[in-house]
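Input structure tokens:
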């Protein structure tokens, strides 16, 4: 039975991720004032978790994060919100700042063929209440993402799982219905909770009153839904001693309040600075802003089964009102205009740069250019030649979405498409846009990847298996194309770093472009800032998947 880790396959995948532009960014940044810190060196290293053992430990750390779930519930969190949750409800596998997956609550992990995975649980691990971690806890923690009708944000990652069983003492075997190289990342994003604690508290699990029960290096002390979480060091943690004593993560939606918090010194770090504020934040004395490639795309989405937007002429008319170059350079602070769903730097991990450039030039020529005259002509050919009025929901946690929507709305109104923009909380937004598809048929989002593989975003956005009904709903457009599904299936049967996967992904992007289920806007970069008292080693687009507080150290000076 070949082991997955330490094999040439994972070495090549790690190299591929680095080539793709998700390489580790070593950040030494400066700023003023801050939380008190201990003079003791954090040299305890009981596990090979991958965080640096050097550098001073930190008593308290306050960090502004981009998003937070409305409950301490693994079904209610994905991507950025997992950055808080996984500190307490830790996963079986751990994705490190070196882009390497290593066993975490799983002591070992092996792959047998293309569809079978075996995990041996680590012994001696205890929950915060002293109860031991068992396979029953892991099975329960996985089941909530696989139960029929689940509203789990990461249900799609478990969709290909045929069975999860205990096959030996402390051993679990997971079998997939089809090959899926991305599945391993689900193991790094699925937090494990106490089955007994969950059964005792029922639907109150994850609430501010009950909180939750995990094994992680930090335990939750308090929680305000979608707003703030306070975590404290788990002194009985089974692994490497956590570097930070107390962590407060906050979401600050208002631009002025966010800036004031940084200027006042109340906040030590911010991850995900709004693109429109990067220049302002860089002018804060002794506070440095750094950035890295972000594997995401701002885009408009059409639900192809909704009246009006099922018409290609209306979709083209709207696309012609989107000035991607102006939006990328203005609202998004110099981001790169997008031509498709995947940033080209990510594709360069599979294909030569000149091949990627040629393919993206062709994709760009397919996408309707900004042209209001052509927009009016397309609208005249549609089934709504006089135009229409439609509601556009905007998630309040990302101020860029509202700014993008308002700018496009001005152009769209000139041709007869009127957008009624409504800002809503994240829970309302995600339910309407991703899980229930109850919008009027048009939406806008920043669609991020939940893993470093180039196929991640296109597979999620274009595969029929992720459309409703039956799928997770992250195929927002409810786009279906059997030919594209087969391209993804062929790619899944290849090794992760096989260059033959590149043309398959490009072909899927080209085929979908003709139907225009999405209008890509721009590829943003991810910005963060830190006070001078700290250094963040290993910041990347997948910060939320790492045990990131242990990558922040107090400067020795």
């Amino acid at each position: 039975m070949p082991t997955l880790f330490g094999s040439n396959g994972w070495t090549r995948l790690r190299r591929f991720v680095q080539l793709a532009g998700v390489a580790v960014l070593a950040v030494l940044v400066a700023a003023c004032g801050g939380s008190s810190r201990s003079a003791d060196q954090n040299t305890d290293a009981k596990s090979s978790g991958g965080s640096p053992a050097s550098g001073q430990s930190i008593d308290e750390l306050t960090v502004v994060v981009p998003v937070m779930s409305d409950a301490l519930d693994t079904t209610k969190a994905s991507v950025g919100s997992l950055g808080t949750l996984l500190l307490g409800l830790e996963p079986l596998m751990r994705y490190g700042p070196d882009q390497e997956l290593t066993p975490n609550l799983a002591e070992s992990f092996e792959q047998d063929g293309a569809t079978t995975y075996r995990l041996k649980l680590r012994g001696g691990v205890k929950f915060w209440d002293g109860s031991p971690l068992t396979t029953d806890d892991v099975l329960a923690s996985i089941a909530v993402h696989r139960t029929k009708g689940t509203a789990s944000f990461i249900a799609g990652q478990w969709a290909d799982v045929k069975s999860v069983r205990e096959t030996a003492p402390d051993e679990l075997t997971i079998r997939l219905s089809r090959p899926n190289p991305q599945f391993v990342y689900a193991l790094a994003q699925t937090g494990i909770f106490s089955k007994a604690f969950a059964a005792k508290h029922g639907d109150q699990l994850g609430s501010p009153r009950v909180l939750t029960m995990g094994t992680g290096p930090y335990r939750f002390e308090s929680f305000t839904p979608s707003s703030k979480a306070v975590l404290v060091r788990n002194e009985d943690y089974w692994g490497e001693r956590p570097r930070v004593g107390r962590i407060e993560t906050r979401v600050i939606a208002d631009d002025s309040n966010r800036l004031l918090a940084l200027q006042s010194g109340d906040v030590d770090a911010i991850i995900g600075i709004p693109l429109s504020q990067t220049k302002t934040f860089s002018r804060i004395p002794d506070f440095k802003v750094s950035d890295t490639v972000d594997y995401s795309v701002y885009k408009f989405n059409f639900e192809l089964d909704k009246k009006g937007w099922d018409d290609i002429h209306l979709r083209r008319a709207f696309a012609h009102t989107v000035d991607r170059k102006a939006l990328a350079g203005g609202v998004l602070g110099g981001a790169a205009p997008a031509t498709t769903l995947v940033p080209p730097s990510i594709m360069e991990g599979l294909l030569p740069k000149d091949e990627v450039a040629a393919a993206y030039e062709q994709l760009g020529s397919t996408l309707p250019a900004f042209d209001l005259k052509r927009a009016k002509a397309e609208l005249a050919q549609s089934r709504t030649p006089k135009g229409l009025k439609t509601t556009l929901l905007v998630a309040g946690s990302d101020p860029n979405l509202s700014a993008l929507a308002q700018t496009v709305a001005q152009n769209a109104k000139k041709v007869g498409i009127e957008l009624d923009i409504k800002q809503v909380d994240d829970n309302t937004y995600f339910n309407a846009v991703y899980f229930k598809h109850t919008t009027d048929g048009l939406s806008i989002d920043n669609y991020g990847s939940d893993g470093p593989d180039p196929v991640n975003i296109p597979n999620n956005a274009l595969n029929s298996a992720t459309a409703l009904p039956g799928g997770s709903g992250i195929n927002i457009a409810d786009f279906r194309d059997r030919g594209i599904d087969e391209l993804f299936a062929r790619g899944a049967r290849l090794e992760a770093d096989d260059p033959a996967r590149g043309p398959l992904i490009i072909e899927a992007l080209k085929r979908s472009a003709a139907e225009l289920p999405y209008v890509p806007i721009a590829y943003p970069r991810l910005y963060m800032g830190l006070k001078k008292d700290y250094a963040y080693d290993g910041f990347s687009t997948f910060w939320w998947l790492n045990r990131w507080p242990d990558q922040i150290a107090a400067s020795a000076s």
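The two ends are 50 Å apart (CA to CA). Residues 337 and 522 are 4 Å apart (CA to CA).
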